[in-house]
């Protein structure tokens, strides 16, 4: 499963508070959300580059990118899988897990 592979990739770059949510019963916009936190801009860029490189090589997929590391929130959209990479402050502000609280957590890594 590509979503679980992305979780492994964000772990590789020491992202924390990683959550993989199954949102299929809640919406049709995607099947899974992956939410994680990076400690700084440099780490966020490393996470983005690592995911992009590995998923492109392994699965031939390229995401649509929204946001930037300096804003504290980047979204990688693989259609069925949407990856949210937050700074700590942006994650606390947007609290996506609360918005999607009815979604089933598949993986939680602290």
From TrEMBL:
One of its GO terms (biological process) is negative regulation of translation. Gene3D superfamilies: Beta Polymerase, domain 2. Interacts with ribosomal protein uL14 (rplN). HAMAP family: Iojap_RsfS. One of its GO terms (molecular function) is ribosomal large subunit binding. Functions as a ribosomal silencing factor. Interacts with ribosomal protein uL14 (rplN), blocking formation of intersubunit bridge B8. Prevents association of the 30S and 50S ribosomal subunits and the formation of functional ribosomes, thus repressing translation. Keywords: Cytoplasm, Repressor, Translation regulation. GO terms for cellular component: cytoplasm. InterPro entries: Iojap/RsfS/C7orf30 (IPR004394), NT_sf (IPR043519). It holds the Pfam family RsfS. Belongs to the Iojap/RsfS family. It comes from Chloroflexus aurantiacus (strain ATCC 29366 / DSM 635 / J-10-fl). It comes from the Bacteria. This is Ribosomal silencing factor RsfS. It is found in: Cytoplasm.
